[in-house]
Amino acid sequence: MDTEMIDFVKAMSDPERLRIIGALSKGPLNAAQVAEATGLSLRDAFNHLAFLEYVHVVLGHAAEKKQDEIYELDAVFLEKLARLQFKGKRPEYILPPNANEETRRTLRKFLKPDGSIRQIPNTRTQYASFQIILNYVLASFETDKNYSEREVNAILKRFHEDVAGLRRDLVDTGMLSRERDGSKYWRTQEEKRPS
Question: For residue 4, what pLDDT is reported?
């Protein structure tokens, strides 16, 4: 957990600070108004506001007299903090325990920790690895189910940004079949696929 998040958690762990944040969520206030809205002494309100300002939860706008300073929630910082906490969050990929060593080695080499594809193996020089990666992707498609091109693309986007290339590779290797017009895709039966 980074420092900003630790400071934010500390700020949120105090019920008096939470009351201040609740009061400021309705609009900007000076310290006296915060004290009145939360039932705190002016001194306690100042102390909590100073801490909340220090951890960037609150912005203080300078005034001639300190007690006239206006405080408001730092919406930009709070939004940034929320975005950072959820950015790129994907469950960590766990290698299948029943996979042979070559498959495990290939998946470790070509996959990112979240299971997306770091790099698609070269079809000429790394064909065995290429097949392993395609089989890994193919496992996301159910047998006996038809998919629209949009559904295929949505599944493939989870693995790699080159959706069209990956879709073409699955069709070219016979792992996925499709209507000539691309209106329907389905997983090819195992025994019909090349090994």
Answer: 64
